[in-house]
Known about the structure:
Chain A has 11 helices and 7 strands. Chain A has 357 residues and is mainly alpha-helical. In chain B, the strands form 2 sheets. Chain B has a 3-stranded antiparallel beta sheet, with no helix packed on it.
Amino acid sequence: MSSSEGAPESWISSFCSLMGHEFFAEVSEDFIEDDFNLTGLQSQVPMYKEALEMILDVEPEDEDEEEEEEDEEEDEDEILGDEKPAGYRRAGDRRHARVASDLSVIESSAELLYGLIHQRYITSRPGIQQMLEKYEMQHFGVCPRVHCNGCKVLPVGRSDTPGQETVKLFCPSCQDLFTPPNSRFHSVDGAFFGTTFGCLFFMTFPDLDIGPRLDSSLSAMSPNRASSLASMNNQVSPDIPMPGQPAEINGVRTVNFCPGLGIGKVYESRIYGFRVSERSRSGPRMRWLRMKPTNIVELNEALRYEGLHGPADNDGDTEMGPSLGSAQNSAIAKRKKAPMRRRRLNPDQMSINGTEG
Amino acid sequence: MSAELLDPEDVSPPIPGDLDDLEESHETDPSASDSPLITRSPTPPIANLDRPRRPPVYYATLPIWKPTYKSQFISSRGNEYFCEVDEEYLTDRFNLTGLNTEVPYYQYALDLVTDVFDLDADDDLREQIEKSARHLYGLVHARYIVTTRGLAKMVDKYKKGDFGKCPRVMCEGHPLLPMGQHDIPNLSTVRLYCAKCEDIYNPKSSRHAAIDGAYFGTSFHSMLFQVYPALAPEKSVRRYEPRIYGFRVHAAAALARWQDQYRDDMKTRLRDNGIDVKYAEESEEDDEEDDEEDEQIYDTKGDKTAGDAASARMELGR
């Protein structure tokens, strides 16, 4: 790095600027220095202490301090082929035994440790904020699916245990998982991002616009394309929402709930303009995967259940926000709504009263 | 053919050799040019046998290697998705019906594609004709690949995975097929169809993203699986379940349940018509367990009765 020639680059920033490590956020040192954040990692990472020192760019410490860590490190040294009986060990000997090959072991341990810390960091408040910036700058790429219209994706893992699967990309628009197009990411461990991050991210930022991006360079081939497309799918235009849709469904804003799915966003194979019949042997079988109810209220299972069986015991959990029932929802739903609205308004009034009085 | 273009001046100096060798190379040539395998083989495609043989003058016998337009086009970077259109197909005027209004400099372009172009054009015109030739080749290609021979060639490429692999994780790298969303040129670029998830994706390379989708057409991949139904992969019901600290997320799970209902409706609908739909997981027990798990979650909210399923079907009817 030419810009930071004066001050040597920290291990973390040099790690994050490596080829293939573009998805990583730089974990703040404060986060790493807090032992609470590292709970349990000691048992997962070989040469934990050295790895941590490397990450934090700390010079190796004195002997007496190292001795405290000796117990944990003994088994690792045995793996490395140190054949001396355990009683012989002195911290000084071990330092002599540390050779260049050791350094590469520490280096890989440091990478593993950093990855595991990273997994925790990106679900913390500063970490997720940092990932938001990267997300908005489209550092993670876009969804390859045509009907997702170049929706931005997030790196996630399918497992929280390292060494199982590489990093994948989660598209919020179709709620599906994709392999990164660039092969340089095919060696990045998915556990360094974790299973939780993808969903937590979109729940943390519920107002993040993940809708279609019409400025997508992929679609810009001809100016009259949009109009011709509209005439081609002569179905219900998916961009015009159905009347009476709730603002929120199951805790997700309706506009941000799988905008890439549903009628009009499902690919239909056609031969000379005619749709391939479902009854054909090689007819469509996977439409369900990209389907979404046109009337989103159908996904409110509690409301639907009540509409069929009468109100269940009101244990608080079944109230699903201001659900604006459509015609299908019977009087029961309406009856339910009245007290709910009153209850919802109350805290606001209270606070107004509180500030005024 | 290329040899007709060759002036004696273009020809490499005579190489001493006896006539038998030459005779052999002449015989192998036509089959080589017809073969679907497009390789930059060092064997020169020479004159075809129909031409009146020149007297055995030495300077004309071994012309320099000149690749056909088609083979050059196929092997150039970014054109990996195309297959080689048969000579006979290209020269049959019936197959080109209507393309003369679509392609500027149609006749020159056709001459160029069929390697009989001999116009002394300046660079500007030449460039335009080459552009037209590419366009023409693409449009003929779209027609050719739905023919029996074209399909067979594309199946070979499909099996080799020439069109890339599905980016969807659950498809486990299933090979893709190129397709267009429109049959009219200049409307959309080429897309890739995955037969496993039945969805379409953008090619990951920008080289391929610039190809017109009309060069493959909307019907080709469906036609391929109609002609070769055995090639259609086994479909899977596996899907990605977003989780937070191990817990499934309600919004996604509710949609998944709705989609499962949708699929079950389709299955009963098809079973009523005597068609059995099989998904990869259904022979195993895993999926059943998953379903039961889902239903149990449902059960905690109350009994999942037949009425519930019926209502879902009713709602889908709209």
